[in-house]
Design brief:
Elements (H helix, E strand, L loop, with lengths): L8 H19 L8 E3 L4 E7 L2 E6 L11 E5 L4 E3 L14 H17 L8 H18 L4 E3 L2 E3 L3 H13 L5 H61 L8 E3 L1 H13 L6 H5 L12 E3 L8 H39 L1 H4 L22 H28 L20 H38 L2 H15 L25
Antiparallel strand pairs: 1-2, 2-3, 3-4, 4-5, 6-7, 8-9
Helix pairs in contact: 1-2, 1-5, 1-8, 2-8, 3-5, 3-10, 4-5, 4-10, 5-6, 5-8, 5-11, 6-8, 8-11, 10-11, 11-12
Length: about 475
């Protein structure tokens, strides 16, 4: 089958309507006889019905118009409105025009959900947002589907802090290493994995929509060919193999190629993209010979397309849900909460420790503020990543109005919150370390009281980055719990 272009769908639908009307005229008994198609004159003709030939104009190539009745006495080939009227057509000369409108309306009712599928351009913009966010959180540069994803500044600052404190020691520095620095790199790496999951899911949904657009255009043309066979009194029957759902897994795998991440790397922390989905053959009605059977066949054809869209989108939604559940299970891998550094960590003996005050000041004044700013910037970029804005279509297609948007937007929103929370943790950690250093250098009551205030602030801080109640732009899909 030659692939058609979705951009030409209106033209393809017009051609389908005309072919369906051809089949209707050939297979609908009218006045004791049948019409046949005369392509050369763009008319339907019923010959020699008790001395009269009848003619009905055919719709144009866009499927519009047609249905005008005329007749002639075949003995003198003079057309007239009435002549003799053995088929009694002239008692209602507009009947064909109305019948044609009914055929067109039937086709429209079948195809209406498929005429305004999402553009792929919006998905491409979203994928670029995903790549930029992944780049900010990445530990090194890589490529995704041929696109460069540079390494991020956040991990550069983490590496810089690790180098600066490598040869330092003491209670405060030890606590800073153990409670914060040692966990920070893995937390950012895990959040990078979440961003990768989002990118792969967006790529999967893009492919589902892309394959659907192609399948709709191709199968409108296929339906036209079927009605053409019916109009020629040939039997049409065939099944259809669809790869809409299968494309979801292939697109996710392609997104992960080139070093952005691998399935094994994601699997190491319990995350995964859409698993392989086989192509599926759908059974269609057999022995299609009449107009009515053709309409039933077309309905079955587009039901099959919708079922395959549903297969793909359910797989994406299920994958996202499982990833979210895994993140909740491994809560601490993504949500770094730094316990405060206080006098219980041995700060009172810090004067005897190995501490480079100049390097600590660089960490406090440069590395940690920059890291917090970059994490806030990453959170803002995660805010832009949303499926609801690009996947909107007729609610009868696939999973509904915006596909697997609920599951996707929940995960995107959670990532945004986790990044924002981590930025706040870094900011508080910077203040905590600063107050600790003041106490080490000054050892006065004011410095001690100032440290206690920060410790109290850290210990009493309340923020739940896992609350997704505000992530919903659309109401739950039918049958879903309101809490989803």
């Amino acid at each position: 089958m030659t692939h058609q272009f979705y951009s030409q769908l209106d033209t393809l639908i017009g051609q389908l309507k005309r072919s369906a009307i051809d089949a209707y005229m050939v297979w609908t008994v009218q006045g004791g006889g049948h019409f046949s198609l005369n392509p050369s004159s763009s008319e339907y003709i019923m010959y020699e019905n008790r001395g009269v030939n009848y003619f009905v104009t055919r719709p144009n190539e866009h499927g519009d118009g047609g249905g005008t009745l005329s007749s002639e006495d075949h003995r003198n080939f003079i057309r007239g409105e009435y002549n003799e009227d053995p088929a009694n057509f002239w008692s209602d000369p507009d009947q064909f025009g109305r019948a044609f409108d009914e055929v067109r309306a039937t086709i429209d009712s079948i195809l209406e959900p498929w005429t305004d599928l999402p553009s792929l351009d919006g998905f491409d913009v979203q994928l670029e947002y995903c790549r930029k966010l992944m780049g900010m959180l990445a530990s090194s540069g890589s490529t995704s589907k041929g696109n460069l994803v540079p390494g991020g500044l956040i991990t550069d600052d983490i590496d810089a802090i690790e180098r600066k404190i490598e040869n330092m020691s003491g209670g405060a520095i030890g606590a800073f290493k153990q409670k914060f620095v040692d966990k920070l790199g893995s937390t950012v790496g895990n959040l990078h994995a979440v961003a990768t999951i989002l990118g792969a899911a967006m790529a999967s949904e893009r492919e589902v929509i892309s394959q659907t657009r192609t399948a709709v255009a191709d199968n409108v043309a296929y339906a036209t060919e079927t009605f053409d066979m019916i109009a020629q009194c040939q039997t049409a029957q065939d099944n259809i193999t669809l790869k809409i759902a299968a494309g979801a897994a292939k697109a996710a795998a392609l997104f992960l190629s080139g070093g952005v991440a691998t399935a094994a790397e994601l699997s190491a922390i319990g995350l995964a993209t859409v698993s392989e989905i086989p192509e599926k053959e759908y059974k269609l009605p057999e022995g299609v010979r009449t107009y009515e059977e053709g309409i039933t066949w077309v309905k079955s054809l587009f039901t099959s397309i919708n079922n395959d869209v549903l297969r793909g989108e359910q797989a994406i939604a299920t994958s996202l849900t499982k990833n979210m559940e895994q993140m909740h299970t491994d809560h601490g891998n993504y949500d770094l909460t730094m316990p405060p550094i206080s006098t219980v960590d041995g700060i009172n003996i810090e004067k005897e420790a190995v501490v480079d005050v100049g390097l600590i000041n660089e960490i406090i004044t440069t590395n940690m503020p920059t890291m917090a700013d970059n994490l806030r910037d990453a959170s803002s970029k995660a805010f832009l990543i949303i499926m609801s804005s690009v996947a909107i279509r007729d609610p009868n297609v696939g999973l509904g109005l915006a596909g697997p948007n609920h599951e996707f937007d929940d995960l995107s929103y959670t990532l945004r919150q986790l990044l924002s929370d981590l930025a706040a943790e870094v900011q508080l950690g910077k203040i905590n370390l600063e107050k600790v250093m003041n106490l080490i250098l000054e050892t006065d009551n004011a410095s001690s009281d100032s440290l206690k205030e920060v410790v109290d602030q850290i210990e009493n801080r309340t923020f739940d980055p896992w609350d997704t109640s505000r992530s919903k732009l659309f109401p739950p899909r039918p049958g879903q719990d309101e809490a989803l």
